[in-house]
Specification:
This protein is mainly beta. The chain has one helix and seven strands. Strands 1-2-7-6 form a four-stranded antiparallel sheet, with no helix packed on it. Strands 3-4-5 form a three-stranded antiparallel sheet.
């Protein structure tokens, strides 16, 4: 018996990459660190906020790789001579990835009070009506 997947439905032409996209999303950093929020900040605008207490702007990198927003954090080795009696503040490296839909672009990023804000915007495509002529053979 052949398993029919969502992307293989005959009315969904050109969506063959959808299944791979879903698999990639499932693997893209489901770990809970650092905690984050995703909010809709407008009709076609979104904001991802990550709690990155203890990280400086230089410790963070934000890239878009193949429609995937990737945020990486790695703290420097400053203060290696410090002796902690208790260390409850995480200082570990992280990577968070979010798959972006076609037309969604990163509009900017800012940092405020230990929170990294990444602004996303979706470009609204123009509605195009195309008439196809039928050729006579």
């Amino acid at each position: 018996m052949t398993k029919l997947t969502f992307a293989a439905h005959p009315f969904l032409l050109g969506f063959d990459q959808l299944e791979r996209l879903v698999e990639r999303t499932a693997k893209s950093g489901t770990e809970g660190y650092p905690p984050f929020n995703i909010e809709q900040s407008g009709d076609n605008a979104f904001r991802i906020t990550l709690a990155v207490a203890g990280f400086r702007e230089d410790d963070l990198s934000i890239t878009v790789e193949d429609r995937q927003l990737v945020i990486r954090g790695r703290q420097g080795e400053e203060g290696a001579e410090r002796v902690f009696l208790h260390r409850g503040i995480a200082a570990r490296a992280f990577q968070k990835a979010f798959v972006l839909a076609d037309g969604v672009e990163v509009a900017g990023a800012s940092m405020e009070n230990g929170l990294l804000h990444i602004e996303l915007r979706r470009a609204v495509p123009e509605t195009v009506v195309q008439t196809i002529r039928i050729a006579r053979k």
